C-alpha cells in the first residue's frame, strides 16, 4: 500500500487524538448505542490526557453519523479539527483511543496494507464501462466510452463489396478500441493503479490489448464473467473481480517479500527486527515496511519533530537531534517515518517465513 494519501495527516500540528470506534448498530437500540459509544470515546480520551475539546468533537461526529454507517470508523483530531476520517471493516473491538505526538494509524494501515488501487474495464465492440478504485476500494471515477456502431455486425453483402465492408468493420472496431484504451490509460494514471481487470467481449478484449501501454499490459488480468448487456450475473462478476485482485495482490506481496529475503544481509539493502528497522528509519531509508502478525506496534519508541528522529531510547533519540524527545508507540512512529519519506507498507501473510520481531523493511540505497 502506498501511503502518500496520509502525508497531510502527519504534516498536521499535533498532538493527536486517534479513535477507532465500532459503528454498527442494532436497529432497535441504535440511538442509545451511538450515545453510549460517544460518551465512552470522550471519557477514554480524557483519561489519556486529551483535552475535552477532542473527545467532544469525536463524540459529536459519531452522534451525527448516518444510520448506514460503516462497520468501524477511525478518526484523527488535531489542532481543533479532524485531519483524518475513514471507514474500516469491523475488528471486534468496540473502542480504542490514544492521545499522543503522532496519529496512531497502524491498525488502519495494517488492515489496508495489501489493498491496491485498480481499474475494472468491461468492454464490447462499441466501447466500454470503466471504474477506477482507490486502494481502499472506494470508487474514484466511472466512465462509459461509446464509439461508433456503424457496420459492426459484419453482414454478408455481394462479393464485389465484401472486402470493403469487412475492412470498414475492422476499422470501426479498431477506432473504438483506441478510445477505450485512452480512457483506461487515463484512469490507470489517475489512481496510480496497480491492477487492471478486463472483462467482456473476447474479440473486444483482444483488440484492446494492442492499444494499451506496456505498463498497463503488465497490470492486466482477464475474467470471463461480466459484460455490458443486460442480464449479467453481477454477483458472479464481483466474485471474479475480487478473485482476480486477490491473485494479483498475492503475487505482488510474494514478489516484494522474495526481494526482501534475497537482500537480507547484503550491505544494508534490507532490515528486520525492531532495532534494525528503527535504525534504518532514523536514516530515512525505509522503502517498504513488511508488517508481520507478531509485531507489537504498542512497544515504546522515542521521537522528535522530524521523521528521522526515531529511536528505542530517549538518549538515542536526543543523539539524533531530537531535543525533548517524547514517547510514542513504535508502530505509529515507524509509519510516520515511512509516510514522510514516500515509503509503502505490506502485510506479510501466514505462509511467509516469520520476521524477527514481526517487522522488516526493504531499504533505499
Written overview of the protein:
The chain folds into three domains: 102 residues; 136 residues, Nucleotidyltransferase, domain 5 (2-Layer Sandwich); 100 residues, 60s Ribosomal Protein L30, Chain: A (2-Layer Sandwich). Helices cover 39% and strands 24% of the residues. The protein has eleven helices and 16 strands. It has 365 residues and is an alpha+beta fold.
Tell me roughly what share of residues is in helical segments. 25-40%
Mean pLDDT metric: 85
Number of strands: 16
How much strand? Answer: 15-25%
Q: By CATH's scheme, which homologous superfamily of the largest domain applies? A: eRF1 domain 2
Tell the overall outline: globular
Separation, N- and C-terminal Cα atoms: 21 Å
Count the domains: 3
User: What's the assembly state of these chains?
Assistant: single chain
Q: Calculate Rg over CA atoms.
A: 25 Å
Biggest sheet, spatial arrangement of strands: 7-6-5-8-9
Instruction: Please tally the helical runs, counting DSSP H or I stretches of 4 or more residues.
Output: 11
CATH class annotation of the largest domain: Alpha Beta
What does the main sheet amount to? 5 strands, mixed
Uncertain segments are: 151-158, 163-167
Q: What is the annotated CATH architecture of the largest domain?
A: 2-Layer Sandwich
The helix/strand series, from N terminus to C terminus, equals HEHHEEEHEEEHEHHEHEHEEEHEHEE
CATH topology of the largest domain: Nucleotidyltransferase, domain 5
Amino acid at each position: 500500500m502506498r501511503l502518500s494519501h496520509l502525508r497531510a495527516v502527519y504534516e498536521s500540528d499535533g498532538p493527536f487524538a486517534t479513535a477507532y470506534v465500532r459503528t454498527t448498530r442494532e436497529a432497535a437500540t441504535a440511538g442509545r448505542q451511538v450515545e453510549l459509544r460517544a460518551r465512552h470515546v470522550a471519557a477514554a480520551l480524557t483519561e489519556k490526557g486529551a483535552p475535552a475539546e477532542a473527545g467532544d468533537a469525536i463524540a459529536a461526529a459519531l452522534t451525527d453519523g448516518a444510520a448506514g454507517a460503516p462497520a468501524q470508523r477511525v478518526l484523527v483530531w488535531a489542532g481543533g479539527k479532524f485531519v483524518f476520517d475513514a471507514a474500516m471493516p469491523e475488528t471486534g473491538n468496540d473502542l480504542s483511543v490514544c492521545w499522543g505526538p503522532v496519529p496512531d494509524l497502524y491498525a488502519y494501515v495494517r488492515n489496508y496494507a495489501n489493498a491496491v488501487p485498480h481499474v475494472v474495464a468491461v468492454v464490447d465492440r462499441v466501447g466500454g464501462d470503466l471504474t477506477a478504485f482507490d486502494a481502499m476500494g472506494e470508487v474514484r471515477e466511472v466512465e462509459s466510452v461509446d464509439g461508433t456502431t456503424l457496420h459492426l455486425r459484419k453482414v454478408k453483402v455481394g462479393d464485389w463489396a465484401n472486402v470493403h465492408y469487412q475492412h470498414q468493420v475492422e476499422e470501426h472496431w479498431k477506432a473504438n478500441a483506441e478510445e477505450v484504451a485512452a480512457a483506461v490509460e487515463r484512469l490507470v494514471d489517475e489512481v496510480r493503479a496497480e491492477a487492471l481487470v478486463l472483462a467482456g467481449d473476447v474479440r473486444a478484449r483482444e483488440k484492446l490489448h494492442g492499444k494499451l501501454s506496456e505498463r498497463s499490459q503488465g497490470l492486466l488480468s482477464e475474467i470471463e464473467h461480466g459484460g455490458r448487456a443486460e442480464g449479467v450475473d453481477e454477483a458472479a462478476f464481483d466474485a471474479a473481480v475480487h478473485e482476480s485482485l486477490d491473485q494479483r495482490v498475492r503475487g505482488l506481496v510474494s514478489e516484494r517479500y522474495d526481494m526482501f529475503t534475497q537482500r537480507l544481509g547484503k550491505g544494508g539493502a534490507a532490515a528486520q527486527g525492531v532495532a534494525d528497522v528503527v535504525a534504518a528509519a532514523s536514516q530515512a531509508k525505509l522503502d517498504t515496511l513488511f508488517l508481520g502478525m507478531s509485531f507489537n506496534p504498542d512497544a515504546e519508541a522515542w521521537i522528535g519533530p522530524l521523521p528521522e528522529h526515531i529511536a528505542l531510547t530517549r538518549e538515542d533519540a536526543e543523539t539524533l537531534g531530537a531535543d525533548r524527545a517524547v514517547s510514542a508507540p513504535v508502530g505509529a512512529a515507524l509509519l510516520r517515518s515511512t509516510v514522510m519519506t514516500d515509503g509503502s507498507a505490506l502485510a506479510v501473510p501466514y505462509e511467509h517465513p516469520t520476521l524477527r520481531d514481526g517487522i522488516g523493511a526493504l531499504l533505499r540505497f
